[in-house]
Amino acid sequence: MTRPASSTLPGGFLRSLARFPERPALQLADQVLNYRQLHERAGVLAGTLLRAVPGNEPPLTAVFGHRSVTAYAGVLAALLRGHGYVPLNPAFPADRTRTMLVHSGCRGVIVDASGARELDQVLAGVAPGLTFVLPEHDDVSAFAARWPVHRFLGARELGGAAAPVPAADPDAIAYLLYTSGSTGQPKGVMVAHRNVTRFVDVMVERYGITEHDRFSQTFDLTFDLSAFDMFVAWERGACLCCPTQAQKMFPGKYISDCELTVWFSVPSTVALMSRLRMLGPGKYPRLRWSLFCGEALPADLMRAWAAAAPGSVLENLYGPTELTIACTLYRWDAGRSPAECEQGIVPIGEPYPGMRVLVADEAQKEVPVGEVGELLMTGPQLSLGYYKDPQRTAAAFVTPPGRPEVFYRTGDRVRRPAEGRPLVYLGRIDNQVKIQGYRVELGEIESVLREEAGVELAVAIGWPLNASGADGIVAFVAGHPEDTRELRERVILRLPPYMQPSEIRVVKEWPLNANGKIDRRALRDSLAK
Amino acid sequence: MEATAVQEREVRAKLRAWMAGRAKKGVTRDFNDQTPVLELGILSSLDIVEFVLYIESLRGEELDPDRIEASAFASVDTIYAAFFAGR
């Protein structure tokens, strides 16, 4: 069943609602909501938003929540109301969340209990006139008293469900997702409905998803891989199984207890399972599909997973947010794949149907097969660019010489070893590092450090290194910070967990390279001693 | 042999010290055995491998990952009860 090309999100959810109203749509801790119940929750929120925050300037609604029914219903509510959703994570620093909220221009925000706990910090300095919907709060008078310039609607103020008005335009924004930016300002990637529906169509056909499937949901909503879990599962009436933070620490047990059939995670999770001895042979017989994305995937982990999930097909997916979730894939084959891995890393494979690859030099001209180049891609999953940021959009979305179409510059180094062989990932070309699947601009961490008193210069290094990037961050600073421990305590309040330096070292003399620039490699080498 | 009161105090102090050393937010000032370490993010999936290995080193034997309940890591009290009490 292929959807009409013009359709938009959340069409798949609504089709599944019609076909399987009583089948489970969302499992979260001990709570299970079927399609009808989840739609009712979302419908009430959508109706409330339509009445309280009419208009489409901008056509965006924020969801300030984390692993809760309200958060998932909020995503659906934004879409049912005809807006794109902007996920905001309450676990991230308030300053960062405020920057995103203000930059997005959202006038309506759905807030779950974890978001409500952080709301006061986020609201300091936000221009008046926002409407916050808090369905888990009966009484919101305390918020209203503290912030009379905003409007707060609790459970008692929720109205009835409204008829859904999903966006009619496939080019409208389905979600706006902020990624790390080198200037210290996160970039908002605008992903259109047609980008996501194209991706979903490819995936449900490839994986033969049915209403009997049970999907893992290991990714936070601020990580675009979560869109795979939600929209691919809900397209065919499957159940989305969302582990709590505590359950996420023991994924093997969660796979078994929840009887998952589709697993999707970053390779770091597999590494964690391996170290906790959770990859014993035959442990996960129910898994049909095991998918990995977000980081370089070591072949030895793939082999261990193949033994643990003998009935599962294994695939390595690759893709930046700007190309909508994932845009190349590689299927693991126990016979063929070991020879296709380079330096023990599984290839990223071939582009999705309709996507086109260009491996190019600095002038964006194609390099010969066998040579290393930057990966550029285009096709139906090419996103709309960066929100309110034409400059950075123009720098990243380019028309290479002699090509008629716009390509996205991924910043990733790749190589096709020989004609007919899969693409292999070789790391970043710039100052980014992958940490737990998140793309981190080291410049953003350095920018935050430089704003602190006494810090004249700062360099952040990914450390310790792993096959994908790094496990964490160590920072070097020059100047006269009073106390590096206190400096770190201040800085980590402004950065999300995966960007927080585990250590800050004061440098008296920077090592320099031949060009007179700070020698980052020498700094990294100093950590190994 | 059941842990003596002294041994119990030592184990609890070591567990608290380990987590206080890893805490990524300034929440450790009032840290005690009832502090909800998962809820406050003091203990996260980033730390869990090292922490399990640390518990194993204190116990002197490996844990069975299939029998670990995530809820056992809620606080020092629950960790002690799950992995040390009655041994």
Describe the structure.
- The complex is a heterodimer of chains A (529) and B (87).
- Chain A has 529 residues and is α/β, with parallel strands linked by helices.
- Chain A contains 17 helices and 27 strands.
- Chain A is globular, with a radius of gyration of 23 Å.
- Chain B contains 3 helices and no strands.
- The radius of gyration of chain B is 12 Å and the shape is globular.
- Classes of the chains: A alpha/beta (529), B mainly alpha (87).
- Chain A binds chain B through residues 91, 244-250, 252-253, 256, 269, 272, 275-278, 436, 489, 492-493, 497, 500, and chain B through 24-26, 38, 41, 44-46, 48-49, 52, 62, 65-66, 68-71, 73-74.
SSE blueprint and pairings:
The complex is a heterodimer of chains A (529) and B (87).
Chain A: H1 11-19, E1 24-28, E2 31-34, H2 35-52, E3 60-64, H3 69-80, E4 84-88, H4 94-104, E5 108-111, H5 113-123, E6 131-134, H6 141-146, E7 151-154, E8 173-179, E9 187-192, H7 193-207, E10 214-216, H8 225-235, E11 239-242, H9 245-248, H10 251-257, E12 262-265, H11 267-275, E13 289-292, H12 299-308, E14 313-318, E15 328-331, H13 337-340, E16 350-351, E17 356-360, E18 372-378, E19 385-386, H14 390-396, E20 397-398, E21 407-415, E22 424-428, E23 432-435, E24 438-441, H15 442-450, E25 455-462, E26 473-479, H16 484-492, E27 501-506, H17 520-528
Parallel strand pairs in A: 1-11, 3-4, 3-5, 5-6, 6-7, 10-11, 12-13, 13-14, 26-27
Antiparallel strand pairs in A: 1-2, 8-9, 9-19, 14-15, 15-16, 17-18, 18-21, 20-21, 21-22, 23-24, 25-26
Helix pairs in contact in A: 1-8, 2-3, 4-5, 7-8
Chain B: H1 5-22, H2 48-59, H3 76-83
